[in-house]
Amino acid sequence: MELISFLIDFILHVDDHLQAFVQAYGVWVYALLFLIVFVETGVVVMPFLPGDSLLFVVGALAGAGLMSYPVAVAVLLAAAILGDQCNYTIGRWVGPRVFQWENSRFFNKQAFERAHAFYEKYGGITIVLARFMPFLRTFVPFVAGVAEMSRVKFTLYNIVGALIWVLGICTAGYFLGSLPWVKQNLDFIIWAMILVPGLIVIAGAWRARQRAMAP
C-alpha cells in the first residue's frame, strides 16, 4: 500500500519530486528519467507511470536552469524509442507462443489476420498518436508486435512518434513552465494531462463498442 501511495503522489506531484531529486542527486536525474520512460513504454504491466506530465515538468525545470535541455531531450528520446522497440519485441516473441493453437481459447486466426491487416494499413498513425495517450502508448507497441507489423515500418513510426512527443511536450514546458499562471496552476495542468487523454481513449472505446453492437 505504501508503494501505491508513493506512486500516486509521484504521478500527481511529479514536479516537486523531480526537483527534489535534482537537488539531491544532480545528474543522476537523467538515469531516473530514462528508467521511468523506458519502463512506461517498454513494459506492458507499467502503463500508469507519468508520461506527458513528466516531459512537461522536465522542460520546465530545464527552462529554469535546473537541468540541461539537450541532455534531457536526448535521454528521453532514447528511452521512448528503445522502450517501444522492447515492447514490440515482447509482442513478437509472446504472440506466437501464446497463440500457437489456431482458434483456441487464446487465439482466433480471423481476429489475428484483421489485426495484422489493420496495423499494416493504419499502424503508423496509430503508433504516432498513441504516444499522447496514457495506457495506449504502452499497449499499442505490444499489440503491433503480436499482430506482426513489419519491424522496419514500426521502427520508422516509433522514431517519428518519439520525436514529436518528446520534443513537443518538453519544448512546451521549457517555454511555458516559467509563466506565473502555469506555475500557479501546475497541479491542474498535470491533472489535465493525465485525465483528458484518458477520457478521449474511454470515449473512443465506448463509441467503437456502440458501433460494433449496432445492427
Automatic annotation (TrEMBL):
Localization per Swiss-Prot or TrEMBL: Cell membrane
Membrane-spanning intervals of the chain: 27-49, 56-82, 122-144, 156-176, 188-206
Listed name of the protein: Membrane protein
Signal peptide: none
Family of this protein: Belongs to the DedA family.
Keywords: Cell membrane, Membrane, Transmembrane, Transmembrane helix
Statement: the UniProt record of this protein carries the keyword Transmembrane helix: yes
The keyword Transmembrane is annotated on this UniProt entry: yes
Top-rank lineage group of the source organism: Bacteria
Ranges for domain VTT: 49-174
One cellular component term from this protein's GO annotations in UniProt: plasma membrane
InterPro entries named in the record: DedA, DedA-like, VTT_dom
Topology of the protein relative to the lipid bilayer: Multi-pass membrane protein
